[in-house]
From TrEMBL:
Record GO terms (molecular function): oxidoreductase activity, acting on the CH-OH group of donors, NAD or NADP as acceptor
Pfam family name, one: adh_short_C2
GO biological process entries: fatty acid elongation
Source domain of life: Bacteria
CDD domains: SDR_c (cd05233)
InterPro entries according to UniProt: NAD(P)-bd_dom_sf, SDR_fam
Protein family according to the UniProt entry: Belongs to the short-chain dehydrogenases/reductases (SDR) family.
Stated name of the protein: 3-oxoacyl-ACP reductase
Length: 237
């Protein structure tokens, strides 16, 4: 009988939603591999900090290898790292395209591929959760963000595809589509305006996202789900 705890790998874990997810999974008793471009070790021996840019080839494999070497396994991956740039489509630069697709797509692909390989080797299932945006289904002229839709829309589709592909082997795959969440990426002076995007009349809080991800973690009959945490934004306005 193994005494190794279940292990969650979380990207974009240095601040905001990612940092809160580290705490959420630790409260569930998971060991955590926390990745971000700039992240340093803390006091908790059950949290392994692995710095690296998931948009750079090879980083995803390195993160999963570190989890296997340090904790011996991988049970959950939360693909939280992402770049969001709201800009008119014709104003996006080639450099922005490379950065956004690198983190949002390559990061998801490399981390998830290496993690699923390990989950299959372990033979006892696993879980992928990918952070997406409700703008995929509910485009808004006030928030032009075609590259978010291009990348995150693909991730929604891939999440469903992986759910079906690996269902019989106990690996689940879900996504959480967010509205505007109160995180360091937003200027606090914008929140009043951003709140109007949601029918509930407020922006989301980090705890709303953590609760949604942990619900999916504890829902073994749920896979292929795109769970909207967006204050009703995807339903209409």
């Amino acid at each position: 009988m193994t005494t190794t705890p279940r292990v969650a790998v979380i990207t974009g874990a240095s601040q905001g939603i990612g940092a809160a997810l580290v705490g959420g999974y630790r409260k569930l008793g998971y060991a955590v591999v926390a990745n971000s471009r700039n992240i340093s070790a803390g006091d908790d021996p059950m949290v392994l900090a692995v710095p690296g840019d998931v948009g750079v080839p090879g980083t995803g494999r390195h993160i999963i290898d570190a989890s296997i070497e340090h904790f011996g396994r991988v049970d959950t991956v939360v693909n939280n790292a992402g770049i969001f740039v709201a800009r008119a489509f014709t104003d996006y630069t080639d450099e922005e395209y490379d950065a956004i697709t690198g983190v949002n797509l390559r990061g998801f692909f490399e981390v998830s591929r290496a993690a699923i390989q390990q989950m299959l080797t372990q033979g006892d299932g696993g879980h992928l959760v990918t952070i997406s945006t409700t703008l995929v289904e509910h485009a808004n002229s006030a928030v032009p963000s075609a590259l978010a839709s291009l990348t995150k829309g693909g991730l929604n589709a891939a999440s469903r595809a992986l759910a079906v592909e690996y269902a019989t082997r106990g690996i689940r795959s879900n996504a959480v589509a967010l509205g505007v969440i109160r995180t360091p990426m937003h200027d606090p002076s914008d929140y009043e305006t951003l709140a109007s995007l949601h029918p509930v009349g407020r922006v989301g809080e980090v705890v709303d996202v953590v609760d949604a991800v942990l619900y999916l973690e504890n829902a073994p009959f749920v896979t292929g789900e795109i769970l909207h945490v967006d204050g009703g934004q995807s339903a209409g306005h």
